[in-house]
Design brief:
The chain has 15 helices and ten strands. The chain is α/β, with parallel strands linked by helices. Strand 1 and strand 2 form a beta hairpin. Helix 12 runs antiparallel to helix 15 and helix 13 packs across helix 14. It is globular and about 50 Å long. The two termini are 34 Å apart. Keywords: Oxidoreductase. It holds the Pfam family Aldo_ket_red.
Length: 321
C-alpha cells in the first residue's frame, strides 16, 4: 500500500468517497447518481476497504443531508483506525454567528467521533467570513487539519494567509481534477500545493463513472440524474477515442480503464478520492495504487483527452483561473 504524508499523518494514496451513500436533499446518491444505497448494501464495501488498508473516508454534511455521514458513522463506531474527512458547506449554513461549529458538531455527532481529521470549507462563498471560524476549532482539537475545496488559486492563497496570521496552515486542497478537467493544474494550483506542503485531493477522477468503460452511447447514465444530464449520448461518442487509449494501456497492465484513470491521478502527484459503492471498487483502488504509468502513457492520455474537447463542470464549480 502506497502512502502519503499529510503533515504528521500517514494516509493512503487513495481516499474513499461517500457522496453517493444514502439519499435525500438533492445532493444525495439518488439525485446525483441514481443510486438508492442503504447501510446493508455498503457495509461489505467498508469492510473490504478497511481490510485493504484504505482508511481515509471522505464525506460531507450536505451529502444526502446527513445520510452519508450517518451511514459511515454506523460503520466506524468504536474503531480507532479510521480517518474522517468531512465538510462545512456555506450554502446550508444559515445566518448563525457560530454556523461552522454548529455544522461541525452535527457532523461529529452523526459520525460518532470527537474530532474531524480533515475539515474542509466545501466551497469559498465568502473566504473572509468563513475561514477564520475554523481557527478556534483547530486550536480546541475539534479539527486536526483544514482543507479548502473548490477554491481557485487566489482564494487558496487568501485562506492560507488568514491561517498564517495565527501560526496555522491549510493542509490540503480538494478540487475536481481528471483527464477531462485539468483546470487546477493549468491554473498552477497543483504546483502551489507541492511548493507549500499541501496535499491536493482530486475528486471526480472517474467523472462519476464516465471513464470506467461501463457506460457508453449505447448504455448511457440514467437520464433523470445529474450525471445523466452532464454525460449525454453525444458526450459519450466524443469520449470513445480516449476510452480506447485507456483500454490499450490497461491491456498492458491487465488493468481496467478506471484503474488507469486513478493511476494517472496518482502519477500527477494527487490523492484521488474515488466514490465506492461496490466491493469491486475497492479492488480497483488496490490495483490502481500499485500501477505505475510511464511518462509516454501519461502524455498519450492527456493528448487524446484534450483532443476530444469534453470538459464537464459541475453547477457548483467555477473556472480555476
Amino acid at each position: 500500500m502506497k502512502t502519503v504524508r499529510l503533515q504528521n499523518e500517514t494516509i493512503p494514496s487513495i481516499a474513499l468517497g461517500t457522496w453517493s451513500w444514502g439519499t435525500g436533499g438533492g445532493a444525495g446518491g439518488d439525485a446525483v447518481f441514481g443510486n438508492y444505497l442503504t447501510a446493508s448494501d455498503l457495509k461489505p464495501v467498508f469492510d473490504k476497504a478497511m481490510e485493504a488498508g484504505f482508511n481515509l473516508w471522505d464525506t460531507a454534511a450536505v451529502y444526502g443531508i446527513g445520510a452519508s455521514e450517518t451511514i459511515l458513522g454506523n460503520f466506524t463506531k468504536g474503531r480507532k483506525d479510521v480517518l474522517i474527512s468531512t465538510k462545512f458547506t456555506p450554502q446550508i449554513a444559515g445566518d448563525s454567528e457560530n454556523a461552522v461549529e454548529e455544522l461541525l458538531d452535527g457532523s461529529l455527532k452523526r459520525l460518532g467521533v470527537d474530532h474531524a481529521d480533515i475539515y474542509w470549507i466545501h466551497n469559498p462563498a465568502d473566504v473572509q467570513r468563513w475561514t477564520p471560524k475554523l481557527i478556534p476549532l483547530m486550536k480546541s482539537g475539534k479539527v486536526k487539519y483544514v482543507g479548502v475545496s473548490n477554491h481557485n488559486l487566489e482564494e487558496i492563497k487568501w485562506a492560507a494567509s488568514i491561517f498564517a496570521e495565527e501560526g496555522l496552515k491549510i493542509s490540503a486542497v480538494q478540487n475536481h481534477y481528471s483527464l477531462l478537467y485539468r483546470s487546477s493544474e493549468e491554473a498552477g494550483i497543483l504546483d502551489y500545493c507541492k511548493e507549500n506542503g499541501m496535499i491536493f485531493f482530486s475528486y471526480m477522477v472517474l467523472e462519476q463513472g464516465a471513464l470506467t468503460d461501463k457506460y457508453n452511447a449505447q448504455h448511457p447514465f440514467p437520464s433523470d440524474t445529474r450525471r445523466g444530464e452532464a454525460f449525454n449520448i453525444d458526450v459519450f461518442v466524443k469520449l470513445e477515442g480516449l476510452i480506447q487509449v485507456m483500454r490499450d494501456i490497461g491491456t498492458k497492465y491487465n488493468a481496467t480503464t478506471a484503474q488507469v484513470a486513478i493511476a494517472w491521478s496518482i502519477a500527477k502527484g494527487t490523492v484521488p478520492i474515488i466514490g465506492v459503492t461496490k466491493t469491486t471498487h475497492i479492488e480497483d483502488a488496490v490495483k490502481a495504487s500499485k500501477l505505475s504509468l510511464t511518462a509516454q502513457e501519461i502524455s498519450d492520455l492527456e493528448a487524446v483527452a484534450k483532443e476530444n474537447g469534453v470538459e464537464i463542470r459541475g453547477s457548483w464549480e467555477k473556472p480555476m483561473h
